[in-house]
Amino acid sequence: xxxxxxxxxxxxxxxxxxxxxxxxxxxxxxxxxxxxxxxxxxxxxxxxxxxxxxxxxxxxxxxxxxxxxxxxxxxxxxxxxxxxxxxxxxxxxxxxxxxxxxxxxxxxxxxxxxxxxxxxxxxxxxxxxxxxxxxxxxxxxxxxxxxxxxxxxxxxxxxxxxxxxxxxxxxxxxxxxxxxxxxxxxxxxxxxxxxxxxxxxxxxxxxxxxxxxxxxxxxxxxxxxxxxxxxxxxxxxxxxxxxxxxxxxxxxxxxxxxxxxxxxxxxxxxxxxxxxxxxxxxxxxxxxxxxxxxxxxxxxxxxxxxxxxxxxxxxxxxxxxxxxxxxxxxxxxxxxxxxxxxxxxxxxxxxxxxxxxxxxxxxxxxxxxxxxxxxxxxxxxxxxxxxxxxxxxxxxxxxxxxxxxxxxxxxxxxxxxxxxxxxxxxxxxxxxxxxxxxxxxxxxxxxxxxxxxxxxxxxxxxxxxxxxxxxxxxxxxxxxxxxxxxxxxxxxxxxxxxxxxxxxxxxxxxxxxxxxxxxxxxxxxxxxxxxxxxxxxxxxxxxxxxxxxxxxxxxxxxxxxxxxxxxxxxxxxxxxxxxxxxxxxxxxxxxxxxxxxxxxxxxxxxxxxxxxxxxxxxxxxxxxxxxxxxxxxxxxxxxxxxxxxxxxxxxxxxxxxx
Amino acid sequence: xxxxxxxxxxxxxxxxxxxxxxxxxxxxxxxxxxxxxxxxxxxxxxxxxxxxxxxxxxxxxxxxxxxxxxxxxxxxxxxxxxxxxxxxxxxxxxxxxxxxxxxxxxxxxxxxxxxxxxxxxxxxxxxxxxxxxxxxxxxxxxxxxxxxxxxxxxxxxxxxxxxxxxxxxxxxxxxxxxxxxxxxxxxxxxxxxxxxxxxxxxxxxxxxxxxxxxxxxxxxxxxxxxxxxxxxxxxxxxxxxxxxxxxxxxxxxxxxxxxxxxxxxxxxxxxxxxxxxxxxxxxxxxxxxxxxxxxxxxxxxxxxxxxxxxxxxxxxxxxxxxxxxxxxxxxxxxxxxxxxxxxxxxxxxxxxxxxxxxxx
Lengths: 658, 360
Known about the structure:
A: mainly alpha; 2 domains
């Protein structure tokens, strides 16, 4: 970070690179990624507490430690929190930190927009949670079906507005990441040389781009019904509640893949490293991921098999739902065969990745069972479904994302997380997870509906026992999560020094030092292979066996131990023509910090409360604030003195696209 | 709150892990279980899912087996020479195999699935009973159009006869505005089907054996969603006919004593809302009509009330009238939904309960 310290201070633009202000004004994708991650930990704790309350309530039959009203708020907020404030932004944390590094770029395409996305996310979360203090949290479940959600007692105004605020964050981020991936890849990184994580990020962000506007429309209509009596969904005046369900799930099913694809990308990176083999069937995994993205828009009504849906529609969506299992299966087999014939090393990231594949298989198979439409009517809205989607989103997405935390922690901090604690975390996590969600398959089939504030005794002792096991499982997961948090916190300062390449990794982010220097790469690498970094370390002999190549053989080699900054390559063969690379980073153009993303984003509070309470003055203030923020943003001076170069000079990234 | 009205069904408490294992194995039972179908509309989907589950279990064992085998077989051993494994990049034949085999399996499953979607949804060809189901917050109302009979919570059907449910949320005549989506679900007899405020939806079911089948609302419908239970009493045709006849007779009008006093109060509570404003007790004049609250003409012919969450007896009835929210949380004060707290005096309670108990 030494280069920013040398910046000339320029009026109107923050320049500190240490302390609170530097974090509040940062436009550095790495810092924003870290901020996403820390915020996710806070919301994960809140969502976890909510899940604990749910399991407390259902630990025994016929007890109500929480009133029905509070329980309904808690399960609603648990769903909203875990989907919109934990899994999605945790993926965003990885997008932020890794996309520029993995494609050999110095930052995302729109650094200030990136900061904007983060602040909108944070404030959207705070906004949603402020409802607890303002008359009660939303209580009509995370799907928010009208007519019940349009009633004042449902408090769903906060849901409609809060989710739309979060949608702004996701959309801005999606545009940013798509442009970054398409335009800023290092020279030589063609599409089919991109790491699978980058591919899955690209697909995911296209899904966000197309899915988010759909729910935005649905939520605005819902808000209009709630706040202004618009009656879009009110059957009394010809409105149709089914319309909302179609809109919601047309977003909601791609949303499922928005949550799972990043984790699939992460696992596709870690399994080859842990197996010391390239990913089996790279092209198949990539195309399967893209296929899932497309088909994912064609299965939404399988969430609605028990509504007013005729037999033809039920059949069609049953078939598409079965069909989407095919590309999913392709991925699973390719992951398994990545391990096949390898030399597996069971470090914590590898364990979580294998756990991901194994648990995701269970969620996938129960998903196919949902496609058996006649029996879906038995499973739908029972704990069987709760079990299914937790196997996909907890056993799947969360396992994959946690694997990523362990794997890239040394990239961020320069230190490894403690392996012993990591293994304790994995095994207790796996045990606790299966204790909580395994029995739910059975309790659902035995008749326990979801979203019920009491466990009815009439369901019988078996169901009670399953619920008790689930509740005990939460204690195991809680203990496990505390181990994880302890490991995270202590490893930041006391973890073993990682060195540049602790895993013998394959992708570009490990080409540079850890922790990542502010400029990411002192020289932008030229990519000649898929798994570029691996190929700089190894070549294959005639038998297909990998052999190490002598250090320094490649063109823009950086020493692997990361210590010898003295002999850093300075020739800049792949030099950044527009801005002139230098060994000391002096002339590298990096995005400047800015107050405006934070300042502007604060306007979402008055705008949001104005919409919830239908207060035009408050809303007007928020709108004005946001508009003023745009102008502040546009008119902000450029801080760096050496930015005289014409902006349209060809850069390596644009060269790569050509 | 719930201590006041302990459920009539005995609680089966588990005592240990051994028992737990036994219960897991014996898990395929229970009154509200999709795993113990008691009629063709539950049996057919059940048989199909059993086949699919077996296939899924085979796939599960195969894939998990592959994972476990890989993990054991290809772990880095202690005596490893540090060399790298053969760098395999993929195999097109394998890709085709694991694309085609799942696709073929799914295509095979798809055929009976689609057939059954149509067969379970179409109107039964045989002579069948029609029951209209109306979803209220938070109780189910049933209307038998053939017999002009209204009842609540507990549906009575004949065995071995298909029943076609015509369902809608809310009561078109009275409370359309406050209708929300519900879902009617008696697992042993059929899968669930949502009740919507503006579309009639249909569900077929049939019971092979006499008995009581439990169910509950399966689409989240707000505060007391969990307290919206449903029961189906299936009985032999002769018993059913008798039930219909009983339900078709007008309620008797008590001719004196606290019962008559209670009847007066039922129709007139002074400046408080009268019971009759929402509940019908049909005494033979005029038509029977759908109500905002359950029809009480033959209240005491039912086993349970308040959304079928408590046994119907003098004590619970009295508690319900005195403080309805202590049995089932409702939103009358804020939303007009449910039974109001009428601030009844002890004398009024005595009289009303005495009257209601006459409604056999």
